[in-house]
Amino acid sequence: MRRVILSVFLLLGILLHAQAQAIRSISNLDIRVEVEKDGSAWITQTWDAEAGNSGTEFYIPVGNLGPMTVSRLSVSENGQAFESLGNKWDVDRSRSWKTGKCGIVPKSNGVELCWGLGESGPHQWKARFYVTGLVQAYDDADAFNFQFVNRGMDPAPEHVRVTIVPAFDCPEWTYDNTRVWGFGFYGDINVENGAVVEESSESLGYSSSVIALVKFEKGLFEPAVTAGGPFQDLLDRALDGSAYGEDDGMPTWFAVLFGLLFCGSIFLLLWAAIASARGYKWKKSIFGKKKIEGWYREAPLEGNLLAAEYLLVKGKRFEISAPAQNIIGAMFLRWIMDGKLAVQPDPKNAKRVNLEFKADSVSDDDVIEDLYQMARSAAGDNRLLEKNEFEKWSTKNYKKMSAWPDRAIARGKSWFRDKGYFLRDGVCTEEGAREACHVVEFKNFLKDFTLSDQRGATEVGLWKDYLVYAQLYGIADKVAAQFKKLYPAEFSQLAQETGMDTRTLIYTMNWTNSMSTKAFTNAVQRAGSISGTGGHTSFGGGGGFSGGGFGGGGR
After folding, report:
1. CA distance 110 to 260
2. Strand ranges inside 396-490, DSSP E
3. What is the DSSP string of 298-333?
4. How distant, in Å, are the alpha carbons of 14, 44, 207, 443 from that of 30?
5. Residue 146 has what DSSP assignment?
6. Percent helix, strand and coil across the chain, each rounded to 5?
7. What are the backbone dihedrals phi and psi of residue 220, each rounded to the nearest 5 degrees, phi first?
8. What pLDDT, in 10s, does the model give residues 41-76?
């Protein structure tokens, strides 16, 4: 009985502590940065938070400003603007006095942005402020290294997304003129559709921060603030202690932690392998369940390969590997099936084929079109893509090639979002989860094709989609072999419609897959993570940042 009483009191203590917190949770933080030509920026933060019963205000320290300034804070909630007190905020006033008000507290090396908590319960605050000198001029580039979310926030946000866009007419930001690195958290940073997008993949902790280092080609900006010196000095300081680059040493603290957790890691890997082998390998937040066993017999998501690729890569519970080259091979095969590429015998070797570019353009989608034009450029003036040409081109043009799969995934995610399939970012509606499951169910169907007593796949038009998606799934050779064995006449008809015999069709599928793998691998190896062409962020590193500081949240 005594144990029961103690347990009850312990539970009550935990609940009372949660109630007494100034901020119980921050479920999401969305930050939009609109950068002006002179390097200044408007930063808008949308906080989805739940206030507790204690404390009086929410505050954000913004320090390490140097020549930068922070001013013009405004806060609103549900469309109602808070009263702005400018630099006359009084941290010692009561909660009721601060409700509906906001202000700035000047500090020795920066400011604190503050506003009243209001009533306990859920809130969505929109805070907006102006920063001068965000982008500064270096000798060979214009750049910034800014901390958007502080270490030591209490509580830390569960999800963060930072979107940085130009607020003036300028050339579109691409990897040709913009490079990005992210530090302080686990997630990704990329250049997407003319914007820099940085997003967390898991909840932030007390030691987490969100830092973005962005380098712009000279000429995009006319910065009002000059930092001077080479950009490389800023980059070297940020990369120190990071996971970027093949030669970066493992930080001592991480080596110690790794040693302590080695046995536990082995156990977790075994558990992940067993769970994956049993089929529990999909994110419930996206698919509505972790194990997907059913069949689906039609091309899912209206045939959108990029949306399917997004689900296959980002929908996995255990992201051990993601064969990005599969989407490239699938695009090649689709163009062949649609007659955009023609398969021609190689006059130099009777066992090989070349790809002839029949179309000048293939899509209104710039991501798909860019891949086609990259391959066409590799083919040269004769418009024939020959053995090793795409691989060699990708090595020389590694920036474009290594960045393309991430662009494809981002575009696929945008398509999925535009369809209204997200309840919130990364969490599907019921309809969205059902559509997402079709992607995996279609793969199940193709893998188990020989087991189905209702195959009915005798229409050549359906087979084209089947083989393209099989290429995306990485099982094209197996599916083609099944088709050829079960329906030799129809498989021969399919080959003839694409201008080939059956042997050439199977060879072409294998070649495009191999070519895509080599081209992407060459590009990634040449680029290296240190090149700033996007991808995963580094938890360590990020030194020399401006803005931010330590702490923040409720008090």
Report:
1. 39
2. 422-424, 427-428
3. S-SGGG-HHHHHHHHHHTBSS-S---THHHHHHHHH
4. 29, 8, 19, 35
5. E
6. 40, 25, 35
7. -75, -35
8. 999 999 999 999 999 999 999 999 999 999 999 999
Find the helix or strand (DSSP H, E) in which 440 lies.
Answer: helix 430-447
Residue 450: Cβ within 10 Å count: 13
Would you state the structure tokens that stand for residue 253, as one six-digit string? 């603290």
Contact (CB, 8 A) for 545 and 211? yes
Question: What whole-number distance in Å separates Cα of residue 421 and Cα of residue 310?
Answer: 13
Locate 548 and state its tokens. Answer: 């931010």
Given a contact cutoff of 8 angstroms between Cβ atoms, the answer to whether 31 and 148 are in contact is yes
Burial string for 119-132 (b: 16+ CB within 10 Å, else e) reads ebeebebbbbbbbb
pLDDT mean across residues, the chain: 86
Q: At what angle do helices 502-527 and 398-418 cross, to 10 degrees?
A: 110
Residues 200, 187: contact at Cβ < 8 Å? yes
CA atoms of 153 and 454, how far apart (whole Å): 57
More confident residue, 40 or 476: 40
User: Nearest 5°: phi and psi at 146?
Assistant: -120, 140
Q: Give the span between the Cα atoms of 70 and 122, in whole angstroms.
A: 28
Strands lying side by side in the sheet with 136-137? 136-137, 142-149, 210-216, 178-183
Is the pTM higher than 0.90? The answer reads no
User: Which residue shows structure tokens 């059902």?
Assistant: 434
Largest Cα–Cα distance in the chain?
A: 89
User: What per-residue confidence (pLDDT) applies to 162?
Assistant: 98
d(Cα 285, Cα 225) in Å, to the nearest integer? 44
What does 72-97 look like in DSSP terms, one character per residue? EEEEEETTEEPEE-TT---TTS-HHH
* CB atoms near residue 463 (< 10 Å): 22
Residue written as token pair 């069709």? 505
Q: Would you state the CATH architecture of domain 26-246+538-547?
A: Sandwich (2.60)
Best CA proximity match to 376, nearest among 355, 397, 396, 398: 355
Q: Which two tokens stand for residue 302?
A: 């209206």
Tokens of 394: 């990708």
C-beta of residue 293 within 8 angstroms of C-beta of residue 445: no
Six token digits for residue 269:
């890997």
Would the pLDDT of 304 be above 70?
yes
